[in-house]
Amino acid sequence: MIDKKTRSGFIALMTTLVVMIIVIVFLASSQNVSTQGLSSTLSRRLSTEAQYIAQSCFEDTLILLKSDSSYSGDSLNIADGFCTITVTGAGSTKTIAITANTLNDYFVLIDAEVNLIESGETSQVQVVSFEIN
Fold this sequence. Notes:
The chain has one helix and five strands; from the N terminus they run H-E-E-E-E-E. It is α+β, with helices and mostly antiparallel strands. The chain starts with a helix and ends with a strand.
């Protein structure tokens, strides 16, 4: 027969074990949610960084086309990434394709079409279409 003291001790021990298991499960699931949140935040930041690199390359391309209508593209290092620019087309209509990558292999593509307008000594670039993927 189990005396009252032993029974009370057994109940206290079992209660403590159940509470500890619940706390461990809660902490493990909280850690998992936290890790997923950090990963999502990092992905979003790197994707945004790739977009900034692509837009910077596009703006550089517009400036270079304004001063040299025969500009055909280049590879540029910008911040923590790089981009590859390809400019095609004859005459005043140019097609621009840009692939921008971060150092962590996130990439963004830009496809655009522009018209070069020359009036006297000044040149202007008019964006006809712009698509970012």
